[in-house]
Amino acid sequence: MTRIWKALLTSLVIVLVVLAPACKTTKKKVDTKPVVETTQPPPPEIAVQTDTATTVAPPDDFVKTDTVAEEVIPTGIEELNRWVHDKGYIRDAFFTYDESTLDADAQAALSASANWLKSAQGANYRLLIQGHCDERGTEQYNLALGDRRANVAKDYLATLGVDASRVQTVSYGEERPFEEGHDESAWAQNRRAHLVLVQ
What we know:
The chain is of the alpha+beta class. It has a domain at 77-198: CATH 3.30.1330.60. 38% of the residues lie in helices and 12% in strands. The protein has helices at 2-23, 77-87, 104-118, 139-159, 184-190, and strands at 93-94, 126-132, 167-173, 192-198. Strand 2, helix 4 (139-159) and strand 3 form a beta-alpha-beta unit. The radius of gyration is 46 Å and the shape is rod-shaped. The termini are far apart.
């Protein structure tokens, strides 16, 4: 029996030797520095969105289902001419003194006019281009200059795809001024190819 006790005691010592380092408690180091309290603002509150639905912007080529009312075109030809000029669909081409060549502004005006004339709205109308001049120059010279201005506008519209058979020209020279003044500001308004819709 003493052998059994010796074996038990030896086993117990071995277990204590093995487990003793694992059971040791270590002392915590205490920081002896004084604690300084600072007053910091509380952290900002974060707004939590509870709505799980997300809004996604439609792509650029998205077709909207709500229809926009189409513009109502005036039925009378005089009203129609006022309407297209007010909207900028039909624009006159202006010229410099004694010139019948189209500058960039005149080309842009005629390009806008060609776009509308080729559109579904303008496809059913014909066009009369009136050539106008300021009061300087002889009557015959101004009639010839007005004719050149009207025809250069017609030719340019044809290059933009407007059927030339839809376009007529006439020259009024200085006979029908838009502005009655006798200075450069009035003369500049009178040097034009005036576009008029006809039926």
